[in-house]
Design goal:
Elements (H helix, E strand, L loop, with lengths): L1 E4 L4 E4 L7 E4 L11 H31 L3 H8 L16 H16 L5 H16 L7 H40 L5 H15 L12 H15 L12 E6 L14 E6 L15 E7 L5 E7 L4 E8 L3 H25 L8 H6 L3 H21 L2 E6 L5 H4 L6 H4 L7 H18 L3 E4 L9 H7 L6 E5 L7 H8 L5 E9 L2 E7 L5 E8 L3 E6 L5 E10 L2 E6 L2 E8 L2 E13 L3 E4 H15 L5 E2 L9
Parallel strand pairs: 6-9, 9-10
Antiparallel strand pairs: 1-2, 2-3, 4-5, 6-7, 7-8, 10-21, 11-17, 12-13, 13-14, 14-15, 15-16, 16-17, 18-19, 19-20
Helix pairs in contact: 1-7, 5-6, 10-13, 14-16
Bound molecules: zinc ion.
Length: 606
């Protein structure tokens, strides 16, 4: 336990011992104000420190007013979503998953789910196991809304209880800084609490007003100049470093260490967001670093469509080349005579391009945040968490197995957090959505439907031999004609066809319960592929209107395997990365793939 007196720059440790003990607190830069530009950098760091201390205080006060303990976080931040039953783990036993789902619902409700409700949930889970994106049926959605109602009642009751405690919290702060804050401001705090706790979209979604932030700042400023000890109620981390760097740290005495206290806080700006109306979606690109686009809600169209180039690969290549020739030169000199090589400034510079990359990432994130602000848009990216991380949420069929992003997930995460940092400072809200299927949907189709478009069944595997039109559909856009079935085996077929030049080629068609692939026998190239859905032992062939890796060449749509383009049979060809960024923007607009504030934990499922 500790309390801080900011005026006296003292920290009091363990105040429960009547006397406690007191330590000096260093609250300004240790360097003297000398050097370049009359010590401008020292003044800068002093300003920075002052701001940090104030921000920490504001954050601590905000947490004392509106912070939640873990069980309240779980209750107030959670919601019941029908999506829950989609998130079974790979190879998870279905009965085990059913049990898990019921447990999660019951934990949220603090009461049991009826047998009738269970039956309906289980039958929907059965459907979901055969095909993850089966639409929810009405009965199931009704059960979810019944469950939601009970959950929301619990939530409301808890929020009301927390509101009833709020007066007490205000009294506590009045004791600290009472006379310095006007009665109107204190009243406003209570009004803000009322709005926050009974916010219709839920307490954790509430966006605090600018005036609330101002009042917190006033309180903080008064605490800073008050000669009394204040309990931050924020647990710091204690760090120690050897005071004498030349000594080994193995057996230093307590007074041979320097001690630092580290606090974590979030800038108060983060809680007063702009009221944005448009949506800026970002995705990683294949050849480009990033693709982003802005959806204008009023115009119902995409007003910005941008592909950000990737110069980094070029830099790396150039660096390798220069390094190699330098090494070569060095070896030559050394071999010649006993030359001592001068410390080469060039070499130092060449050591790394990391700072350059860092600056580039900073500039891009700045550019994106400015763009979002200029167009009154929130920013939406894909979640990087959990299982999505490995697969990027894309179905791992042959078509997507080879999606080779220009940015590693690590660097993408880095840029995302830079964007978040700058967005917070500007008050631009940033969200993340689940990555599932975002690269497999046509943005224009999603816009028309207001939701993801489900793939449709174009036929069954055992109909291929008897349905001419199905054969035609399988080869549509492949450029092949005169398709004939030569031989049928179990899970396999041999076919012949004529290519664009009129030459005969042989093909192999293979399928299992997951996918159907048609390959050119000679070069093993994929001619076409389709997902398969097992319906009561019959293999249904699915096709979606939008496909990545398909494009129009010389007027005919064709499966070229070029993942940079996508082709929608309704809306035509589009850059696949740009399309994905548009889909991501629309996810937030239509509330698909569970959008949450960036960096928040998804509470409704693991
Ligand atoms: Zn489309």
């Amino acid at each position: 336990m500790y309390e801080i007196n900011f005026l006296k720059k003292k920290i009091k440790i363990n105040p429960f011992i009547p006397k406690g003990f007191y330590l000096d607190l260093v609250m300004e830069p240790e360097q003297k104000q000398i050097g370049k530009n009359n010590g401008k950098s020292v003044i800068k760091s002093r300003e920075y420190l002052n701001n940090s201390i104030k921000s920490l205080l504001i954050f601590a006060i905000h947490s004392q007013f509106f912070g939640l303990n873990n069980s309240d976080k779980y209750l107030l931040g959670g919601k019941i979503t029908p999506q829950l039953i989609k998130y079974y783990k790979k190879n998870q036993d279905i009965e085990n998953f059913k049990k898990e789902v019921i447990e999660r619902f019951e934990r949220k409700l603090k009461q049991e789910i009826s047998e009738k409700q269970k039956k309906i949930i289980f039958s929907q889970i059965n459907l979901q196991y055969s095909q993850r994106d089966t639409p929810f049926n009405k009965e199931y959605l009704n059960v979810i809304s019944e469950i939601s109602e009970v959950f929301n009642q619990r939530k409301d009751a808890r929020a009301e209880y927390l509101l009833s405690l709020f007066d007490g919290k205000i009294k506590l702060f009045k004791k600290y800084v009472g006379e310095k804050i006007s009665p109107l401001d204190w009243d406003f705090l209570f009004e803000e609490a009322k709005k926050a706790y009974i916010y219709e979209k839920g307490f954790t979604e509430y966006i605090y007003s600018a005036r609330y932030a101002e009042i917190l700042e006033k309180i903080a400023e008064n605490i800073l100049i008050k000669d009394s000890y204040f309990d931050l109620k924020k647990y710091p981390i204690l760090l120690r470093k050897s005071a004498d760097k030349t000594k080994k740290i193995g057996n230093l005495k307590p007074n041979e260490w320097k001690y630092y206290i580290q606090f974590g806080y979030e800038p108060i700006n983060a809680i007063s967001f702009l009221d944005t109306r448009n949506f800026l979606g970002i995705d990683r690109g294949l050849t480009h670093l990033l693709a982003y686009s802005i959806f204008d809600k009023g115009e119902r169209k995409f007003i910005v469509n941008q592909l950000e180039p990737n110069p980094i690969k070029g830099w790396k290549w150039k660096l390798r080349k220069v390094k190699r020739s330098l090494q070569h030169l060095e070896r030559k000199w050394k071999a010649k005579e006993n030359v001592k090589l001068p410390e080469n400034q060039m070499k130092k510079k060449l050591r790394s391009i990391e700072p350059k990359v860092e600056v580039y990432y900073h500039n891009i994130s700045r550019k994106i945040v400015n763009l979002a602000k200029e167009h009154n848009a929130s920013i939406i990216v894909e979640s990087l968490e959990g299982g999505a991380l490995k697969q990027h949420g894309r179905k791992k069929n042959a078509r997507n197995r080879t999606l080779n992003y220009s940015l590693s997930l690590f660097d993408y995460g880095k840029i995302a957090s830079l964007i978040k940092y700058k967005a917070n400072l500007e008050g631009v809200p940033m969200y993340e959505v689940l990555p599932a299927y975002t690269s497999q949907q046509c943005a224009m189709c999603v816009l028309e439907k207001g939701n993801f478009v489900e793939p449709e069944i174009i036929g069954y595997v055992d109909e291929i031999g008897s349905r001419e039109d199905l054969l035609f559909l399988l080869f549509e856009g492949s450029g092949l004609s005169f398709i004939k079935i030569l031989k049928e085996n179990k899970n396999k077929m041999s076919l012949s066809a004529r290519d664009v030049k009129g030459q005969n080629i042989n093909l192999n068609l293979k399928y299992n319960f997951k996918e159907l692939v048609i390959l050119n026998e000679q070069d093993e190239n994929v001619v076409a592929e389709f997902p398969i859905k097992d319906i009561d032992g019959k293999f249904a062939i699915l096709d979606s209107v939008y496909k990545r890796g398909k494009e129009k060449v010389n007027g005919i749509q064709k499966y070229t395997g070029n993942k940079k383009t996508g082709y929608c049979s309704k809306h035509g060809q589009i850059d696949a990365d740009l399309n994905a960024s548009r889909v991501i923007a629309l996810c937030k607009y239509f509330k698909i793939n569970d959008p949450i504030l960036f960096g928040e934990k998804r509470k409704s499922f693991k």
